[in-house]
Amino acid sequence: MIVTPRDDLAEISLDSLSSSDRSPGLHVSGLIRRLMQRLEPGKYSDDEPDITGVLRMLLGMAFEDKLEWLLDRRWPGRIVRPGEIERDGIVGSPDGVDINEERLYEYKLTWMKYEPDLEHQKYWKYIVQIKAYLAMLGWTRACLWIYFVDGDYRGSGPLLKPFDLEFSQQELAEAWAMLLGAREAADA
After folding, report:
1. Whole-structure pTM value
2. Fewest CB within a 10 Å sphere: which of 49, 110, 131, 170?
3. Which residues contact 22 (CB under 8 A, 6 or more apart)?
């Protein structure tokens, strides 16, 4: 047998993974990235991700697709990917919505250590994104599914954890105002 390693992945970029349906303009994720750059400048930059970052994003997208498929088997036709939504010139792309229950669904895959307290700082960007999408939809409830690839770092193995979330209108309005402020700061 002759084995020749290939380097086909060298051409994979963030753009090649993005949906062709994504519109140009200001997106919720871009505003959150700007906020994270201010909070943790050493960790978040404007640089394009390296191949490891792109491959991690690819795994996250595969997880989203498979979880979407599993939820559809559990509740056929109930949770759907809505495509892009817009408010105040800001675009968002929720992973799923349950129109019957007015509940947002978001799916995350991470190598972070599992921490059951969603008010922990490490989840801040997830929570802000969810609040933004809920503000855009006019809803208050969400279900966040997080797949912790490395589990609790104490031998648990991978963990899949769903969390039901409910926010007040005030919490959503404050999060939306923060994103509007980030947009204005970026425009200045």
Report:
1. 0.89
2. 170
3. 84, 93
CA gap 12, 51 in Å, rounded: 7
Q: Which CATH class is domain 26-187?
A: alpha beta
Strands 141-148 and 103-110, bridge-based pairing? parallel
Looking only at the bridges linking them, the beta strands covering 159-166 and 141-148 are antiparallel
Q: How far apart are CA 29 and CA 119, in angstroms?
A: 19
- Token duo for residue 130: 């969810």
Give the CA-trace dihedral at 18, 23, 25, 29, to 10 degrees: -50
Strands (E), 28-134: 79-80, 85-87, 90-92, 96-98, 103-110
Collapsing DSSP states into helix, strand and coil, what is residue 129?
Answer: helix
Q: Which of 42-46, 69-73, 102-106, 169-173 has the lowest mean pLDDT?
A: 42-46
In the chain, where are the structural domains located?
26-187
For tokens 């690819």, the residue is 58
CA distance 145 to 113: 15
CA distance 79 to 97: 5
Q: Read off the pLDDT of each residue in 88-106 and give the average, rounded to a whole number.
A: 96
Q: What local confidence, expressed as pLDDT, does residue 4 receive?
A: 84
Residue listed under structure tokens 């209108």: 169
On the 0-12 / 13-18 / 19+ scale of CB atoms within 10 A, 61 is: middle
